[in-house]
Design a protein that fits this description.
single chain; about 70 residues; mainly alpha; about 40% helix; transmembrane helix; transmembrane
Length: about 70
C-alpha cells in the first residue's frame, strides 16, 4: 500500500477523484431533499406596505413646513 499522494499510481488518483465526486453528489442530494421536504410553517411571506404622507428628514432640530 502506498501512503504518499505524490508517488501514488494513476488508479489511486482515479479512486480519490471518484470517491470525492460521489461524496459531493451525496451531500448535494441530501441538501436538495432536505430543502424540498421543509415544513410550510417556516416559509416567509411578503407584507405589502403602502406609502404614507411624505416627510423631510433634516439634521437640524427645526421642523419643515410645506
Amino acid at each position: 500500500m502506498n501512503h504518499s499522494i505524490y508517488s501514488a499510481d494513476r488508479t489511486t488518483h482515479l479512486k480519490i477523484v471518484v470517491v470525492a465526486l460521489v461524496a459531493g453528489i451525496a451531500v448535494a442530494g441530501f441538501g436538495i431533499s432536505a430543502r424540498l421536504n421543509a415544513e410550510t410553517g417556516y416559509t416567509q411571506t411578503a407584507k405589502v406596505m403602502k406609502a404614507g404622507k411624505p416627510i423631510a428628514v433634516t439634521s437640524s432640530e427645526a421642523s419643515l413646513v410645506r
